[in-house]
Structure of Polyisoprenoid-binding protein:
Amino acid sequence: MSRFIRSLSALSVIAASLTVPAIAQNVPNPGKVQSGNYVVEPAHTQVGFSVLHFGFTNYSGLFSDVSGALKLNAKNPSASSLNVTIPVDSVQTTSPKLTEELKGSNWFDAAKYPTAKFVSTKVTPKGSQDALVTGNLTIHGVTKPETLTVHFIGAGVNALDKKYTTGFQATTTIKRSDFGVKMFVPYVSDEVRLTIAGAFERQD
């Protein structure tokens, strides 16, 4: 028993000596976030999509490896701007077969249209932590105006890489047929719900 107690004591000393990174401060007031030029932090940015599959399930997938820039004006959000680029062949689902089909010519045709893009044209604040971000969305070679509903999540210095980071959640619903992606409509719903988790690192 005494040996067990000594072991526990030793573990306690080791644990106490470990430095655990503090959680990044979540700034509750977007007006206090640092203004400046940001770039997408791709490892923690995801673009999720969901469609109604044959009336049975809401089937989801996602895109990754997003790049882009955010010009953030915390004091005057309407002066902010955003542009992002999504590599189409980053699409993923839980079915390897479906993932490859989505990259093909019947769906996104990643070989011909390798990227999707969103470039903002207007930012309209809605309360202290929300905004509507209108812009031009390009998918499958077709550009249409779309509006994102954006919610501020938080900001602060990332405890791991020490970079000042801010994050947002955005949603919108689009019609894929508007962009020429019509395979299996209406059995696979024309409406596609997009959910974006966006992380941005300050550059200056």
Remarks:
- The two ends are 58 Å apart (CA to CA).
- Residues 53 and 188 are 5 Å apart (CA to CA).
- The chain has one domain: 27-202.
- The chain is about 10% helix and 45% strand.
